[in-house]
Amino acid sequence: MLKIAWSEIFAHSLPEGHRFPMAKYDLLPEQLLYEGTITEENLFAPTPLTERFILDTHDANYWQRLKQLELSPSEVRKTGFPLSEQLVQREVVIMNGTVQAALFALEYGIGMNIAGGTHHAFTDRGEGFCLLNDIGIAANHLLKYKSIKKVLVVDLDVHQGNGTAQIFEHEPRVFTFSVHCGHNYPFHKEQSDLDVALAEGTDDKTYLGLLREHLPRLLDEVEPEFVFFQSGVDVLATDKLGKLGMTIDGCKARDRMVLELCKQNNLPVAVSMGGGYSKQIAHIVEAHANTFRLAQQIWF
């Protein structure tokens, strides 16, 4: 059964002025339920992640200062959100959403989080709407507690997964693969195990050709036992924060390629939604919804 992390806190703990396009966290499950792609049984509400699992990835001093709302004004500005207790609580729930999705993936082949993809969070700081790194925390959870020996992170958000790259720069059991717009945030890039920097305006054909060139080869060479897929839809040409030229159909073809390769290779995959900032919320919801539709079609 497809299991999907969702909680009202995903959308309703954000400050005024930051709720669009975060409305997608409510609209997406509503759309999937309405069209019959999922039922209520597919959804699970994660609880806050236990602190010791956060500390397997994040610096203890940073976590304590974040939890006590003691970040400096400069640190807060870099996150893009006004810091609040509700915001930290939201992040901790999102973290467990991806951890639980990963555990469901071990059982069912795939698990998904309607939020997550917080790949700009470093071990000791937050950036770019990310306070903690859900893929980092969930990958470390599998390595430490579930005897997984090799993880592949497939980050296809329009922005480089700089925080994830930093977290695992000295961890040979995790291979980080990021396909992103080269001339876009973050302007200082970290070094993933493999970075593919795309030119502005890259279209569907070029993007899919590059992904087809790299991903099957990585699966053969890295030989992962588990995949984390960051499926941001800010690759769309309509996105306000992205600079690529992809269509909704191209984004769907991207997701199909990743998910079908995982299924064909018997690789469990945990999917986090990542970014999406198109002017029309319908474009965001439709692009994200395709990822869930494909998961149902391919696995169930």
TrEMBL record:
InterPro entries with a match to the protein in the record: HDAC_classIV (IPR044150), HDACs (IPR000286), His_deacetylse_dom (IPR023801), His_deacetylse_dom_sf (IPR037138), Ureohydrolase_dom_sf (IPR023696)
GO molecular function: histone deacetylase activity; hydrolase activity
GO biological process assignments: epigenetic regulation of gene expression
Keywords: Hydrolase
Transmembrane annotation, as ranges: none
Domain spans labelled Histone deacetylase: 18-289
Domain of life: Bacteria
UniProt record similarity statement: Belongs to the histone deacetylase family.
Protein name per Swiss-Prot or TrEMBL: Histone deacetylase
